[in-house]
Amino acid sequence: MKVVRRSVTEGFSLALETPQGHKVFPATVPGSIHTDLIAAGVIGDIRIDGTEAEQEWIRNADSAYSTQIPAQSGGGNYELKFDGLDTLATVSLNGAVKLQTENMHRAFVLDISDSTSGAMDLKVEFKAPLPEALKREKEMGPYPNPYDMPYNYFRKMACSFGWDWGPITVTSGIWKPIWLTQWDEGILDEVGIVTDVVDGVPQLRLRTAGRGSATTVEVVISGHGKEKRVRTTLGSDEVITCEGFELWHPRGFGQATLYLVEVTLLNAAGDAIDEVVKRVGFRHVSLDQSNFGDRQMFAICVNGQRVWAKGVNWIPDDPFPHRVTQEQYADKIADLYSVEVNAIRVWGGGIYESDDFYDVCDELGIIVWQDFLFACAAYPETPEMFTEVKEEAQQAITRLGSHASLVMWCGGNECIEGFQHWGWKEPLAGKAWGLNFYLDTLPAALAAFDGSRPYIPGSPFSTVKEDVKDFSSGTNHIWDVWNETGYQRYEEYSPSFSAEFGYNGPGSWRTLTKAIGKSNLDSRDPDLATHQKAFFGMDKVAKGLVREFSKEFTQGPAWYFAAQLVQARAVEVGLKHFRSQYETCSGSVLWQYNDMWPAISWAVLDSASSRKLSWYAMREAYRPQVLHFSGVERKLILINDASVAWSDLLKVHLVGKNGEVLESSSREVSLESRSQASFAVSELFKTAGISAIDGYLIAELGAIRTARRVLDAPVDEVCAHNVDIQERVVGEQVQVHIDANCFIYELSLLPELVALDRVEVSAERITLLPGESIDITIDCSSAADAKKVASRIEEITWSLNRLMN
Fold it and tell me: What is the value of pTM for the model shown?
């Protein structure tokens, strides 16, 4: 008989102790305590307008999910597979305890063959994670992390305990599907696939495991006019060569060609009884770590070609990740693709994402760096933890290994740095703290089940020195810019690979006002401050404003615009600077792309998918062709990452602080494909003492324009905001034409100030010379919103000129 798998989703109830006593609610599986209580109207949705305070009691609440599974009439073996239990679960069947778990990142299988003759009462009890973690902390002693939450004592999504951008939920629940499986002659338990290219020949490594009398496995690899059929034995680990199959390439280097792999288990009669289907792409991945001078490269290479990573860091897209849909993944990654991103790092304080995430990356040619799930903490090296980490790693490698987009594994985030630099050694008092996971357990799992991808023990990481914060090699994290100095300091760094850097700013006005239930944003408001999780975050945002502007901004649209503006400037300067170091730096991975709740954070896209000004700065900086005025080196840098030459008339302008054009010049330039050029500012302009002028530098080459203020001191004087605006509503779109009557710097439209729903603007932070004009579109979610936005067009039109006047 064929293997039959049925999802177990019906009839669940949730029982738990609430502040109002013992309650029972209808439950959804997959789900969580929080989402079931949201559905019941007990709490608000923290992703929209719920608060941590109203939900704090859930952290300490034990809970139980119950349902009844009907009797099964057929013969053979029966089992329940739990794809994900979050986290401290006790599974009972008909009152008898069958399974106990404490790892949300792996699956568990329970044989129930002796219980199917009658109806089966399934109960999954969850111990509240926080009290248990605190208990273990007391028993085992401190294992440090930067927060006041003991998230590192068992295998649970670290950021559910809160992070410096996210809320504390500490939820529990059946967060992935449960499957009732019936089988007789045989079953495929594991199908591990990894691909490589050896001596120019595509190869597929297939590893299978299963049970039963059926042992023949048929493999069919097909697509693009090619097909290869192979028969092998269940339990084998072998390499299949695929001569003539096309390679998978990352974006910008060719087609992301994918093939279908069908792995079928056959019984003695040759009938198919179980099947696993995956898509693969053939490519070879390596790291270029060649030496040059006293430095060492850290470059990801695919099919022998260096891929300069224009990347972002990805966090879980919802506090309750079971809610993230295939469509949501597709929309977010398509958004990244639209701004030229070619690399995503999946950060180690979250989850191994759904296959839907990696499927989209496979299709679009976006490479993925995957952290194993360790973040910013020391972890106990107990026998139980070793067992869990080993099994978790094996399952993750087996599930994700077939994805062509996955090009690098990493042991975790900032754990080794924490031990070396964050004062952990004294409280640990000689205890093992997780290093053996990163140096032994994880590499051993990869050697056994993958072997086709590079691995690093953590990030940041040095490939030549013991100190992981060494900038002459490996991956580097840069956080003094946000914490201390201001974004101009980015240009003093020369990293090998900038894996984390970012600047904090408010999410969309509409998102934040809805979250706090107010019509205005005031940086001094305690309710708003609850959505800023960074250490001293509101103070650091304020200090950033002081560094940039001589006027004080504390509330309203002016504060909102100024704070978003500083974040956008930081993102643009950082990304462009690292790209300008093409010869020595091989990637910039911005912290961070997305948010999981309404936040003042480092994200460029907020939790409602509203684009911050920093999103547009990222788009500008990641274009194939970029212009950048370097503040430190006082030069104009031209970057051409396109596959064709860039030839056009370069125009440059020097504008005084009152908007007068002091000097203009032009020259023909031509850049070869994937090359750079630079001109000293003193070479472009004849004006003496230009570095001391309080004014602005503007450059344009073809359709690309950049502008930057000459001085780093706070701006105190700008010409008046003098523009003429014409607007027209066409359906759900507002078409805006703006004429500049003077020099206008960082012209931005902020329709979120008045719109009721999500809006998208075609261009932001625009620089216009006197007499120039621009057409901008605002796409609204309804015709009514479009009319409202158009009627208040003057109110939503901002610039540095307006801000300072």
Answer: 0.97
